[in-house]
Write a structure and sequence with these properties.
With about 290 residues, the chain is of the alpha+beta class. The protein contains 7 helices and 17 strands. The longest helix has 14 residues.
Length: about 290
């Protein structure tokens, strides 16, 4: 079994988890992989096997790993999307952050979950990914989003106008601070904070959620994930912020952002009994009675 470990930076708090991975790798005569930015720290702190491999930031995980382990919070896990891409390498997110909605594996359960994965005792939750057709024009490289694509104003000036086309047909012009196109996974993120609905991961839908719309009758809209959505920023300003999860760039007025479902999914490792609804109940504190606290 080949296990790739990813984090934004090495943290001494990762020691127990990395030691657990090394134990499993040694037991099955497998291989552990890290990215180059962690090389100095892990080489110094651990006795690494001779076949340990270090990957460049653009290294393809799919050709050399069977499992990606994300150590950090939800933001760290989101970054793995552009490392895994279409490789179908499953990802296990161990929570070292705050909320841990995506990286929801508790540290105390990690070792047993890792052993269960090695024994084939796990399930996969397939998650929809977003892509921009003309992404190279904006970022100079292909970037994907697990949560959402958004366009919003670049300063504190007046609201902007956003024209939205669905499959080439005009749908609406939004006067707002911006708009979010979210996947089912992203429905519990930025979109939720702006009043969007929660969708189960298996839903074959996107949600268009305006950010602080001028017209109170404008509400989030659920559409098919087979639709192609074009976002065109207009209004009085010349520049706007285009975001794909944590990746951001500036775009100009009138530029078309064409978004569709990517031809692959990202697969989350789930333990037995670990369901979307159990995560929702825990993280959003559904059913909690605060009157006695």
């Amino acid at each position: 079994m080949r296990i790739c470990v990813f984090s934004r930076a090495y943290n001494p708090a990762f020691r127990n988890e990395i030691e657990s991975i090394l134990e499993v790798v040694a037991k099955v005569k497998g291989q552990i992989l890290f990215y180059d930015h962690m090389k100095d720290e892990v080489s110094r702190e651990f006795s690494l096997p001779a076949n340990t491999k270090f990957l460049s930031p653009g290294g393809c995980t799919g050709n050399c790993a069977d499992l990606m382990i994300s150590l950090g919070g939800d933001g760290t896990l989101l970054e793995t999307v552009n490392l895994i891409r279409e490789s179908n390498v499953p990802v296990m997110g161990v929570n070292f952050g705050r909320l841990g909605f995506l990286s929801n594996m508790p540290r105390e359960d990690f070792q047993s979950a890792l052993e269960a994965f090695g024994n084939g005792n796990y399930s996969l939750s397939k998650r929809t990914v977003l892509q921009i057709d003309n992404c190279l024009d904006f970022f100079g490289r292909q970037v994907y989003a697990l949560n959402d694509v958004s366009v919003h104003k670049s300063d504190t000036s007046t609201m902007i106008s956003l024209k939205v086309l669905i499959n080439g047909a005009f749908m609406n012009s939004y006067w707002s601070d911006g708009i979010i196109l979210a996947t089912p996974t992203g429905s519990t993120a930025y979109s939720l904070s702006c009043g969007g609905p929660i969708m189960v991961p298996e839903a074959e839908n996107f949600v268009l959620t305006p950010i602080a719309p001028h017209n109170l009758s404008v509400r989030p809209l659920v559409i098919s994930d087979k639709d192609v959505i074009t976002l065109i920023p207009e209004g009085r300003t010349d520049s706007f912020i285009l975001s794909l999860d944590s990746s951001q760039t500036i775009i100009s007025r009138g530029q078309q952002v064409v978004v569709r479902k990517a031809p692959f999914t990202i697969d989350f490792v789930r333990q037995a009994g670990d369901t979307f609804f159990s995560v929702i109940r825990e993280k959003l504190m559904w059913g909690e009675d605060k009157r006695n606290t």
